[in-house]
Please model this.
Amino acid sequence: MHEVYLSLGGNIGNKKNNFIQSYQLITKHVGETIVSSAIYETPPWGFQSKDNFWNQVIKVQTELSPQKMLEQIQLMEKQLGRKYTKEGYESRPIDVDILYFDNLILETENLIIPHPLIQNRKFVLVPLAEIAPDFIHPVLKQTNIQLLEKCKDDSEITKIEK
Model:
């Protein structure tokens, strides 16, 4: 059984409903959620939008391989209305990123684990540090708390619900 940290985020549509449906699809197709952070409201990162994001990190147990998990996540995102373009960052109903997969270090054409931008994103580090403060990033060799303390992202993060 693998332990995986996933980041959930979305800024369009019914955010609460999108998150509820995401949890249901993750449970059905990926694995059981062991722990979840609070949900945080954050501004868009890397692009402009009038709609703020909801962000959360969850820890799941799965028997899937990293590649199979990515396939299931992308199917789920499409089912919930996510459209993929080559334009870069944009508004979306739901986005699920694999942050950590056990202590695995993996780099393929379509998947990098740990996620290469964890240390730059306060919207990921705040909820990640909430549920896994002492987890050590397998590449950077620092805990999530240490990464958060060094993060240069000055975005405003507001806890909205547990």
Remarks:
- The chain has four helices and eight strands.
- Residues 15-29 form the longest helix (15 residues).
- Strands lie at 2-10, 32-36, 39-42, 53-62, 95-101, 106-107, 112-113, 158-161.
- The radius of gyration is 15 Å.
